[in-house]
Design brief:
The chain is an all-beta fold and 96 residues long. It has one domain. The protein contains no helices and nine strands. Strands 1, 2, 3, 4, 5 and 6 form a six-stranded antiparallel β-sheet that branches. The radius of gyration is 13 Å and the shape is globular.
Amino acid sequence: MGSPYNTCELETPFSLPEREWQDLYSVNENNSICAFVYWDIIENNPGFRVLIYNKETNKFTESEHLEGCCKSLNWSKKGFIWEAYPEGTGIISEKT
């Protein structure tokens, strides 16, 4: 049985660092801030990080290592809400 979590290649109008990108992303309501998920596996334990890009400032913000497998990423007024398997949720903002 295969994994429901995938990797992908991203094509963006701005340059992204090389990572094992997951096929999840989210943008804010006016498309000025976007977030991308990438794998951050440590000693064969699944984890991920979220990279946030602000088009207005042309700056990146990276989250800390998060345990589990990210299964969703959505924008809210407070920041990007992530949900991970087996159990975990949180909010990541540009100030992370």
